[in-house]
Amino acid sequence: MASILPKLRELQRAKGVLPKKPAKKDRVGFVFSTKERTDFTKRTLASLDRDKGYDILWMDGSDTETARRLPKIYRFKNVKLKEYHLDIRGGPDKTIQFGLERLLELGYDWCGLIENDILFKKGWFAKLMNLFRLSAKEGIAAGAGTVRNLESRVLEYRKGYTVNWNIGAGMILFTREAAQLLVKNYPPIATAFGLYKFWAEHFGLDLSQAKELWFGKPNRALSSDFNYETVLYSNGFSAIGSMPAFVAGELEQGVNPQERGTKYVSGKKQGLLYPTITSKKLLRIRLVSPFLTFMLILFRNAPWLKRLVRRFL
Protein backbone atom coordinates (compact mmCIF):
# COMPACT_ATOMS: atom_id res chain seq x y z
CA MET A 1 0.00 0.00 0.00
CA ALA A 2 1.57 3.27 -1.13
CA SER A 3 -0.86 5.54 0.73
CA ILE A 4 -3.84 5.30 3.09
CA LEU A 5 -5.66 8.14 1.30
CA PRO A 6 -7.54 5.97 -1.27
CA LYS A 7 -9.00 3.88 1.58
CA LEU A 8 -9.98 7.02 3.47
CA ARG A 9 -11.77 8.46 0.43
CA GLU A 10 -13.54 5.14 -0.15
CA LEU A 11 -14.80 5.09 3.43
CA GLN A 12 -15.88 8.74 3.20
CA ARG A 13 -18.00 7.95 0.15
CA ALA A 14 -19.57 4.98 1.91
CA LYS A 15 -20.43 7.12 4.94
CA GLY A 16 -21.47 10.20 2.96
CA VAL A 17 -18.84 12.40 4.62
CA LEU A 18 -17.41 15.46 2.85
CA PRO A 19 -14.27 17.50 3.59
CA LYS A 20 -14.83 20.65 5.62
CA LYS A 21 -12.81 23.86 5.43
CA PRO A 22 -12.98 26.70 7.97
CA ALA A 23 -15.12 29.69 6.94
CA LYS A 24 -14.82 33.29 8.15
CA LYS A 25 -18.11 33.17 10.03
CA ASP A 26 -17.25 29.93 11.85
CA ARG A 27 -17.07 30.01 15.63
CA VAL A 28 -14.25 28.09 17.32
CA GLY A 29 -14.29 27.14 20.99
CA PHE A 30 -11.95 25.15 23.23
CA VAL A 31 -12.55 23.40 26.52
CA PHE A 32 -9.63 24.42 28.74
CA SER A 33 -9.39 21.92 31.60
CA THR A 34 -7.50 22.58 34.83
CA LYS A 35 -7.00 21.01 38.24
CA GLU A 36 -4.58 22.79 40.60
CA ARG A 37 -1.12 23.42 39.00
CA THR A 38 -1.74 27.18 38.70
CA ASP A 39 1.83 27.77 37.52
CA PHE A 40 1.22 25.40 34.57
CA THR A 41 -2.11 27.09 33.85
CA LYS A 42 -0.62 30.58 33.71
CA ARG A 43 2.23 29.54 31.43
CA THR A 44 -0.11 27.65 29.08
CA LEU A 45 -2.57 30.55 28.90
CA ALA A 46 0.21 33.05 28.24
CA SER A 47 1.33 31.01 25.23
CA LEU A 48 -2.25 30.53 23.98
CA ASP A 49 -3.22 34.16 24.42
CA ARG A 50 -0.78 35.42 21.78
CA ASP A 51 -3.30 34.26 19.15
CA LYS A 52 -6.93 35.30 18.71
CA GLY A 53 -9.99 34.07 16.83
CA TYR A 54 -11.39 31.57 19.30
CA ASP A 55 -13.19 31.32 22.66
CA ILE A 56 -12.41 29.33 25.78
CA LEU A 57 -14.73 27.49 28.16
CA TRP A 58 -12.73 26.99 31.35
CA MET A 59 -13.46 23.76 33.24
CA ASP A 60 -11.84 23.58 36.68
CA GLY A 61 -11.81 20.74 39.19
CA SER A 62 -9.48 22.30 41.77
CA ASP A 63 -9.91 22.18 45.54
CA THR A 64 -7.54 24.95 46.64
CA GLU A 65 -8.89 28.48 46.81
CA THR A 66 -5.94 29.86 44.82
CA ALA A 67 -6.66 27.59 41.86
CA ARG A 68 -10.44 28.04 42.07
CA ARG A 69 -10.06 31.82 42.05
CA LEU A 70 -7.86 31.96 38.94
CA PRO A 71 -10.66 31.63 36.30
CA LYS A 72 -12.41 34.60 37.94
CA ILE A 73 -9.44 36.95 37.95
CA TYR A 74 -7.30 35.94 34.95
CA ARG A 75 -7.20 38.70 32.33
CA PHE A 76 -6.89 37.65 28.69
CA LYS A 77 -5.48 39.92 26.00
CA ASN A 78 -6.75 38.21 22.84
CA VAL A 79 -8.77 35.17 23.87
CA LYS A 80 -12.43 35.51 24.82
CA LEU A 81 -13.38 33.60 27.97
CA LYS A 82 -16.95 32.62 27.17
CA GLU A 83 -17.67 31.04 30.56
CA TYR A 84 -16.05 29.10 33.38
CA HIS A 85 -17.26 26.21 35.52
CA LEU A 86 -15.93 25.17 38.92
CA ASP A 87 -16.26 21.86 40.80
CA ILE A 88 -15.95 19.74 37.66
CA ARG A 89 -15.57 16.22 39.06
CA GLY A 90 -15.45 12.63 37.84
CA GLY A 91 -12.11 12.58 36.03
CA PRO A 92 -10.90 13.80 32.63
CA ASP A 93 -13.45 11.88 30.55
CA LYS A 94 -16.39 13.41 32.42
CA THR A 95 -14.83 16.85 32.00
CA ILE A 96 -14.30 16.31 28.29
CA GLN A 97 -17.83 15.06 27.71
CA PHE A 98 -19.39 17.92 29.67
CA GLY A 99 -17.20 20.47 27.89
CA LEU A 100 -17.89 19.19 24.38
CA GLU A 101 -21.62 19.03 25.09
CA ARG A 102 -21.52 22.63 26.30
CA LEU A 103 -19.64 23.81 23.18
CA LEU A 104 -22.23 22.10 21.01
CA GLU A 105 -25.09 23.64 23.01
CA LEU A 106 -23.56 27.07 22.44
CA GLY A 107 -23.48 26.46 18.67
CA TYR A 108 -19.74 26.33 17.96
CA ASP A 109 -18.71 25.12 14.50
CA TRP A 110 -15.38 23.79 15.75
CA CYS A 111 -15.00 22.24 19.22
CA GLY A 112 -11.63 21.60 20.84
CA LEU A 113 -9.81 20.43 23.95
CA ILE A 114 -6.70 21.92 25.57
CA GLU A 115 -5.02 20.79 28.79
CA ASN A 116 -3.06 23.13 31.05
CA ASP A 117 0.42 21.72 30.52
CA ILE A 118 1.32 22.61 26.91
CA LEU A 119 3.27 25.61 25.60
CA PHE A 120 2.21 26.87 22.17
CA LYS A 121 4.19 28.77 19.57
CA LYS A 122 2.89 32.12 18.35
CA GLY A 123 0.74 31.54 15.28
CA TRP A 124 -0.48 28.12 16.45
CA PHE A 125 -4.17 28.89 15.85
CA ALA A 126 -3.78 29.89 12.19
CA LYS A 127 -1.59 26.83 11.68
CA LEU A 128 -4.26 24.61 13.21
CA MET A 129 -7.14 25.94 11.10
CA ASN A 130 -5.08 25.73 7.91
CA LEU A 131 -4.61 22.01 8.50
CA PHE A 132 -8.21 21.37 7.52
CA ARG A 133 -7.73 23.31 4.28
CA LEU A 134 -4.66 21.25 3.38
CA SER A 135 -6.41 17.91 3.92
CA ALA A 136 -9.55 19.12 2.10
CA LYS A 137 -7.43 19.92 -0.97
CA GLU A 138 -6.60 16.21 -1.15
CA GLY A 139 -10.23 15.24 -0.64
CA ILE A 140 -9.76 14.10 2.96
CA ALA A 141 -12.55 14.74 5.47
CA ALA A 142 -10.60 15.55 8.61
CA GLY A 143 -12.74 15.31 11.74
CA ALA A 144 -9.93 16.24 14.12
CA GLY A 145 -6.63 18.09 13.98
CA THR A 146 -3.76 19.11 16.22
CA VAL A 147 -0.58 21.18 16.29
CA ARG A 148 0.75 19.02 19.17
CA ASN A 149 1.91 16.39 16.75
CA LEU A 150 4.20 13.51 17.79
CA GLU A 151 6.10 11.32 15.34
CA SER A 152 5.07 8.20 17.26
CA ARG A 153 1.40 8.86 16.42
CA VAL A 154 1.73 9.39 12.67
CA LEU A 155 0.44 6.95 10.05
CA GLU A 156 1.43 8.88 6.95
CA TYR A 157 3.29 12.07 6.11
CA ARG A 158 1.67 14.32 3.51
CA LYS A 159 2.67 17.77 2.23
CA GLY A 160 2.14 20.13 5.18
CA TYR A 161 0.20 17.68 7.35
CA THR A 162 0.11 14.12 8.65
CA VAL A 163 -2.56 11.44 8.92
CA ASN A 164 -2.51 10.06 12.46
CA TRP A 165 -3.55 6.90 14.28
CA ASN A 166 -3.79 9.01 17.43
CA ILE A 167 -3.81 12.66 18.52
CA GLY A 168 -4.70 12.67 22.23
CA ALA A 169 -6.89 14.94 24.34
CA GLY A 170 -4.06 17.30 25.32
CA MET A 171 -4.67 19.48 22.25
CA ILE A 172 -7.27 18.54 19.65
CA LEU A 173 -9.87 20.36 17.55
CA PHE A 174 -12.96 18.60 16.16
CA THR A 175 -15.37 19.67 13.46
CA ARG A 176 -18.84 20.13 14.89
CA GLU A 177 -19.97 16.91 13.19
CA ALA A 178 -17.08 14.92 14.64
CA ALA A 179 -17.65 16.37 18.12
CA GLN A 180 -21.32 15.36 17.94
CA LEU A 181 -20.29 11.88 16.90
CA LEU A 182 -17.80 11.57 19.76
CA VAL A 183 -20.24 12.80 22.39
CA LYS A 184 -22.87 10.34 21.18
CA ASN A 185 -20.39 7.44 21.02
CA TYR A 186 -17.85 8.32 23.71
CA PRO A 187 -15.43 5.38 23.78
CA PRO A 188 -14.26 3.26 26.72
CA ILE A 189 -10.61 2.82 27.64
CA ALA A 190 -8.49 1.43 24.82
CA THR A 191 -6.09 -1.50 24.72
CA ALA A 192 -2.97 -1.80 22.60
CA PHE A 193 -4.16 -5.05 21.05
CA GLY A 194 -7.63 -3.63 20.36
CA LEU A 195 -6.14 -0.71 18.43
CA TYR A 196 -3.75 -3.03 16.61
CA LYS A 197 -6.74 -5.14 15.56
CA PHE A 198 -8.73 -2.08 14.47
CA TRP A 199 -6.04 -0.82 12.07
CA ALA A 200 -5.38 -4.31 10.76
CA GLU A 201 -9.02 -5.12 10.03
CA HIS A 202 -10.26 -1.72 8.82
CA PHE A 203 -7.25 -0.44 6.91
CA GLY A 204 -4.97 -3.45 6.43
CA LEU A 205 -2.09 -1.81 8.31
CA ASP A 206 0.38 -3.56 10.61
CA LEU A 207 1.10 -1.34 13.65
CA SER A 208 3.21 -3.95 15.42
CA GLN A 209 6.18 -1.54 15.31
CA ALA A 210 4.26 1.47 16.69
CA LYS A 211 6.28 1.90 19.89
CA GLU A 212 3.89 4.26 21.68
CA LEU A 213 1.05 1.82 21.11
CA TRP A 214 2.78 -1.04 22.89
CA PHE A 215 5.71 0.07 25.06
CA GLY A 216 6.55 -3.63 25.28
CA LYS A 217 3.14 -4.63 26.74
CA PRO A 218 0.73 -6.59 24.47
CA ASN A 219 -2.10 -6.13 26.99
CA ARG A 220 -1.35 -2.45 27.65
CA ALA A 221 -4.40 -0.41 28.68
CA LEU A 222 -4.67 3.15 27.37
CA SER A 223 -6.89 6.11 28.17
CA SER A 224 -10.12 6.70 26.25
CA ASP A 225 -8.60 9.39 24.04
CA PHE A 226 -6.56 6.68 22.29
CA ASN A 227 -9.94 5.37 21.11
CA TYR A 228 -11.20 8.66 19.66
CA GLU A 229 -9.78 7.74 16.26
CA THR A 230 -11.62 4.40 16.17
CA VAL A 231 -14.87 6.37 16.45
CA LEU A 232 -13.80 8.92 13.84
CA TYR A 233 -12.29 6.65 11.20
CA SER A 234 -15.14 4.13 11.50
CA ASN A 235 -17.50 6.92 10.45
CA GLY A 236 -15.48 8.39 7.59
CA PHE A 237 -13.53 11.09 9.45
CA SER A 238 -9.73 11.29 9.61
CA ALA A 239 -7.37 12.65 12.27
CA ILE A 240 -4.57 14.96 11.11
CA GLY A 241 -1.59 16.83 12.56
CA SER A 242 0.48 19.84 11.58
CA MET A 243 3.80 19.39 9.83
CA PRO A 244 5.82 20.64 11.55
CA ALA A 245 4.28 20.55 15.02
CA PHE A 246 3.61 24.00 16.44
CA VAL A 247 4.15 23.68 20.20
CA ALA A 248 7.19 24.75 22.19
CA GLY A 249 7.07 22.03 24.82
CA GLU A 250 5.16 20.32 27.62
CA LEU A 251 5.19 21.08 31.33
CA GLU A 252 4.10 17.79 32.87
CA GLN A 253 7.04 15.63 33.94
CA GLY A 254 7.16 12.30 32.15
CA VAL A 255 5.17 13.28 29.05
CA ASN A 256 7.77 15.22 27.08
CA PRO A 257 8.40 13.62 23.68
CA GLN A 258 12.01 12.78 24.59
CA GLU A 259 10.86 10.93 27.70
CA ARG A 260 8.46 8.91 25.54
CA GLY A 261 11.19 8.02 23.08
CA THR A 262 9.77 10.21 20.33
CA LYS A 263 9.85 13.85 19.17
CA TYR A 264 7.62 16.48 17.63
CA VAL A 265 6.94 16.14 13.93
CA SER A 266 9.32 18.09 11.70
CA GLY A 267 8.83 18.95 8.05
CA LYS A 268 11.24 16.45 6.58
CA LYS A 269 9.46 13.11 6.08
CA GLN A 270 7.03 11.78 3.47
CA GLY A 271 5.01 8.63 2.91
CA LEU A 272 3.17 5.84 4.71
CA LEU A 273 5.05 4.50 7.72
CA TYR A 274 3.50 1.08 8.31
CA PRO A 275 3.36 -2.01 6.06
CA THR A 276 0.30 -3.93 4.95
CA ILE A 277 -0.78 -6.63 7.40
CA THR A 278 -0.19 -10.18 6.15
CA SER A 279 -3.07 -12.65 5.92
CA LYS A 280 -1.35 -14.90 8.48
CA LYS A 281 -1.05 -12.07 11.00
CA LEU A 282 -4.65 -11.03 10.44
CA LEU A 283 -5.85 -14.60 11.06
CA ARG A 284 -3.74 -14.75 14.23
CA ILE A 285 -5.25 -11.47 15.45
CA ARG A 286 -8.78 -12.78 14.95
CA LEU A 287 -8.00 -16.03 16.76
CA VAL A 288 -6.30 -14.37 19.74
CA SER A 289 -8.75 -11.46 20.12
CA PRO A 290 -11.61 -13.35 21.90
CA PHE A 291 -9.16 -14.76 24.48
CA LEU A 292 -7.63 -11.35 25.25
CA THR A 293 -11.08 -9.77 25.51
CA PHE A 294 -12.16 -12.50 27.94
CA MET A 295 -9.02 -12.04 30.07
CA LEU A 296 -9.46 -8.25 30.14
CA ILE A 297 -13.06 -8.60 31.38
CA LEU A 298 -11.97 -11.20 33.92
CA PHE A 299 -9.17 -9.03 35.31
CA ARG A 300 -11.47 -6.01 35.54
CA ASN A 301 -13.98 -7.96 37.62
CA ALA A 302 -11.45 -9.95 39.65
CA PRO A 303 -8.51 -7.69 40.63
CA TRP A 304 -7.17 -10.40 42.94
CA LEU A 305 -6.64 -12.65 39.91
CA LYS A 306 -4.64 -9.94 38.14
CA ARG A 307 -2.41 -9.56 41.22
CA LEU A 308 -1.93 -13.32 41.39
CA VAL A 309 -0.89 -13.55 37.75
CA ARG A 310 1.58 -10.67 38.14
CA ARG A 311 3.19 -12.46 41.10
CA PHE A 312 4.18 -15.37 38.88
CA LEU A 313 5.31 -13.32 35.86
Could you explain how this protein is built, in words?
By secondary structure, the protein is of the alpha/beta class. The protein has a domain at 18-186 and 242-271: Spore Coat Polysaccharide Biosynthesis Protein SpsA, Chain A (Alpha-Beta Complex), CATH 3.90.550. 40% of the residues lie in helices and 19% in strands. It contains 11 helices and 14 strands. The protein has helices spanning 5-15, 38-48, 65-73, 92-105, 124-137, 176-184, 192-203, 211-214, 228-234, 279-301, 303-312, and strands at 28-34, 55-60, 80-85, 110-115, 118-120, 142-146, 154-157, 161-164, 171-175, 190-191, 221-222, 238-242, 247-250, 271-272. It has a 10-stranded mixed beta sheet, with helices on both faces. Strands 5-13 form a two-stranded antiparallel sheet. It has a two-stranded antiparallel sheet with strand order 10-11. The chain is globular and about 60 Å long. The two termini are 39 Å apart.
**How many distinct helices?**
11
Strand content: 15-25%
- Topology, number of strands: 14
Level of helix content? 25-40%
CATH arch. level architecture of the domain at 18-186 and 242-271: Alpha-Beta Complex
Which class do the helix and strand fractions yield? Answer: alpha/beta
CATH class descriptor of the domain at 18-186 and 242-271: Alpha Beta
Question: What is CATH's topology name of the domain at 18-186 and 242-271?
Answer: Spore Coat Polysaccharide Biosynthesis Protein SpsA, Chain A
Quick one: biggest sheet? Answer: 10 strands, mixed
Mean of all residue-level pLDDT scores = 90
Rg, rounded, reads 20 Å
Strand numbers in spatial order across the main sheet: 3-2-1-4-9-6-12-8-7-14
Q: N- to C-terminal separation?
A: 39 Å
Give the overall shape: globular
Low-confidence stretches: none
What series of H and E elements makes up the topology? HEHEHEHEEHEEEEHEHHEHEEEHH
